[in-house]
């Protein structure tokens, strides 16, 4: 075993250890240090000097020995040394009660007679503060806010021997931030709070309070956004800085008034046509209000007021979109309810009433803005007629004729209903249709028409309408006379009433027939001595005719459908009165008188031929009237010959006549018109020759020829 080592010195620098120094022992590889306190001891193996025994108790007296060790074993313990461990370090409890102070406290340390505490900025700036005390706490003041300080403390015993020291880093709390500014975002209802950064602050807390409501925002920067603020509210904003020492004092509160809330209870009234009254409830923190009114044609107007109502001009038939905003220094309130108000549709204009008949009127007007429907009402008489249509026209029927009506056209919209302010238009219906009571003949071409008059201030027009044309008469009474109606015509007679209001429907037509026309031309032709042919032109409207030849000796009459007639039993040489009656299909008769007619003189009798001289012939007859002149005519193959006697003679001579021929001889009275009558009897004579002269005249008989 190695030699016993000798302790040079033993001492304690830490409260839980003792350090031993010795001279090295040859051959020793290790050393065993032993610290004994009563029955307990602690051993530590070390390689060489110095060596330290740890795990000891503070302020405790120990017996320290050392033994050397090698492979052969351990040496005997060295002579002991008594060494006492130093005092334990005080365990500090440190905090910063304010931004410029640090409070330090600790528990009492065994065997300590006093304590020494020092404080210095950790960055080495400034001077160190040191305090010796027998107390277990002290406060360092007048420090820099938000600054990190290093604090060292140890206890010393009655001999002034210092014990272990205890080091603690403590930061003072920060100063309150300065230059706090609040920027309010009215659109997002949030506030941006900013400040100047303060020394030593690690974080900041912004408190926004309003009554019992508190909003907080924590940040490590020098600004913070506080969202979700309420409108029409006043908030108090303060900022507190924080570090590991604690909070600063809060800043003085900054007042923040948010934008006003959107006005509510908005009402719109049209106190009179053309004027809108917009009203609303007062809003907290609202300094003034702006009302925007936009019409559906894009035009917008606004009103600024500090009151809670505004007046606007309005037009009919428009829809207005109305929004109300409140304002203060913070800005404009959020958009509230947008109300729409539709004014009553405009009253129709360009009113026109056109009568289609006396009981039907067509009303038209110009379409107006805002109207979905039109309601037309005609009131008059004992009732009313109503018409509803989407078109700008309406036909009112079943009206009473000759009646005043007030016609009101109201425009109707689904949103606002009917515009009741539209003024009525006064219209009087056309006169009632007259009723023809009687038609009578006043003269040859005059017809009197009588009707029932049932209108006031009406002019009546009677019209006779036929193929011959139109004839009119006018009266304000109940009758008038149609003049110069043509004969032989059929008419339809109707009457209408006219007034400033219009014209009535025509009355029911009454047929009218005028008497047939007398023929313009009538020709009397004597066919034979006792038969006369009468012909005439067609009389308008006549169906049959009755012709009469009348004389003191008698009359001849003929009723025919034709326009001619043969009358027999005519006495020759007689003056007749000629008359004709034209009769229509319905029996109307026109009596027509014409120029008198004289029948031709009677034909002579006893016509004979006698030879006169060498080549002459005498024609002889018996005259029916000595005052009548006669004409003799001979017609043969060798020529025609004639002679006329002087007045009152009953014969005449033909001096040169060829013989050897057969002659037809006619002797007839001479008429006023010159030509002789062709219906007198014809006789045939044969004239023979005797030498170079006329021979015997032989009667051959009567001719069967007829005059056609």
From TrEMBL:
Q: Which InterPro entries does the UniProt entry name for this protein?
A: FN3_dom (IPR003961), FN3_sf (IPR036116), Ig-like_fold (IPR013783)
Domain of life, source organism: Eukaryota
Domain named Fibronectin type-III is located at: 1-88, 89-175, 176-261, 262-346, 430-517
Query: What SMART domains is this protein classified in?
Result: FN3
Record-linked Pfam families: fn3 (PF00041)
Q: What is this protein called?
A: FNDC7 protein
Instruction: Name the lineage.
Output: Eukaryota, Metazoa, Chordata, Craniata, Vertebrata
This protein's encoding gene: Fndc7
């Amino acid at each position: 075993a190695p030699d016993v080592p000798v302790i040079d010195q033993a001492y304690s620098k830490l409260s839980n250890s003792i350090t031993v120094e010795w001279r090295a022992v040859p051959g020793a590889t290790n050393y065993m240090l032993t610290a004994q306190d009563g029955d307990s001891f602690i051993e530590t193996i070390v390689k060489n000097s110095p060596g330290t025994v740890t795990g000891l108790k503070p302020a405790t007296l120990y017996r320290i020995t050392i033994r050397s060790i090698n492979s052969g074993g351990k040496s005997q313990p060295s002579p002991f040394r008594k060494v006492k461990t130093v005092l334990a370090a005080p365990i500090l409890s440190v905090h910063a009660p304010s931004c410029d102070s640090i409070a330090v406290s600790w528990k009492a340390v065994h065997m300590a007679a006093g304590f020494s505490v020092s404080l210095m900025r950790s960055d080495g700036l400034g001077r160190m503060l040191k305090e010796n005390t027998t107390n277990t706490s002290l406060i360092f003041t007048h420090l820099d806010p938000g600054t990190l300080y290093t604090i060292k403390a140890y206890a010393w015993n009655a001999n002034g021997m210092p014990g272990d020291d205890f080091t603690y880093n403590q930061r003072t709390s920060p100063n309150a931030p300065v230059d706090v500014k609040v920027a309010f975002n009215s659109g997002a209802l949030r506030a941006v709070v900013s400040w100047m950064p303060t020394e030593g602050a690690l974080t900041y807390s912004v408190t926004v309070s309003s009554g019992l409501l508190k909003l907080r925002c924590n940040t490590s920067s020098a600004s913070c956004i506080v969202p979700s603020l309420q409108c029409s509210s006043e908030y108090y904003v303060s900022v507190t800085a924080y570090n590991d020492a604690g909070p600063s004092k809060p800043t003085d509160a900054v007042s923040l008034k948010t934008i006003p809330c959107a006005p509510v209870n908005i009402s719109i009234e049209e106190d009179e046509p053309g004027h809108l009254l917009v009203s609303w409830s007062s809003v907290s923190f609202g300094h003034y209000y702006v009302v925007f009114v936009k019409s559906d044609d894009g035009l917008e107007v606004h009103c600024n007021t500090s009151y809670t109502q505004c007046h606007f001009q309005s037009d009919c038939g428009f829809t207005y979109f109305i929004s109300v905003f409140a304002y203060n220094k913070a800005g404009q309130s959020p958009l509230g309810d947008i109300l729409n108000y539709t004014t009553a549709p405009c009253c129709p204009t360009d009113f026109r009433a056109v009568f289609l008949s006396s009981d039907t009127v067509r009303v038209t007007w110009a379409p107006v803005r805002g109207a979905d429907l039109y309601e037309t009402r005609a009131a008059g008489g004992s009732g009313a007629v109503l018409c509803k249509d989407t078109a700008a026209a309406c036909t009112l029927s079943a009206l009473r004729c000759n009646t005043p009506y007030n016609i009101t056209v109201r425009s109707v919209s689904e949103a606002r209903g009917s515009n009741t302010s539209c003024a009525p238009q006064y219209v009087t219906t056309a006169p009632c249709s007259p009723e023809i009571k009687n038609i009578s003949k006043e003269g040859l071409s005059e017809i009197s028409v009588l009707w029932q008059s049932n209108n006031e201030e009406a002019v009546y027009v009677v019209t006779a309408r036929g193929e011959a044309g139109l004839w009119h008469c006018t009266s304000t009474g109940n009758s008038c006379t149609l003049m110069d109606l043509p004969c032989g015509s059929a008419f339809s007679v109707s009457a209408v009433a006219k007034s400033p209001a219009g014209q009535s429907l025509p009355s029911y037509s009454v047929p009218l027939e005028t008497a047939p026309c007398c023929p313009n031309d009538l020709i009397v032709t004597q066919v034979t001595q006792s038969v006369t042919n009468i012909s005439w032109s067609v009389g308008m409207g006549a169906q049959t005719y009755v012709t009469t030849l009348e004389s003191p000796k008698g009359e001849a009459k003929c009723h025919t459908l034709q326009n001619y007639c043969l009358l027999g039993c005519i006495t020759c040489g007689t003056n007749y009165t000629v008359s004709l009656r034209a009769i229509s299909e319905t029996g109307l008769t026109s009596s027509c008188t014409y120029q008198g007619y004289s029948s031709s003189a009677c034909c002579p009798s006893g016509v004979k031929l006698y030879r006169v001289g060498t080549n002459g012939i005498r024609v002889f007859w018996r005259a029916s009237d000595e005052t009548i002149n006669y004409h003799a005519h001979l017609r043969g193959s060798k020529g025609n010959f004639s002679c006329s006697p002087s007045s009152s003679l009953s014969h005449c001579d033909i001096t040169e006549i060829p013989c050897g021929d057969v002659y037809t001889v006619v002797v007839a009275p001479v008429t006023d018109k010159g030509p002789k009558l062709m219906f007198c009897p014809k006789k045939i004579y044969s004239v023979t020759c005797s030498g170079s002269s006329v021979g015997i005249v032989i009667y051959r008989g009567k001719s069967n020829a007829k005059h056609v």
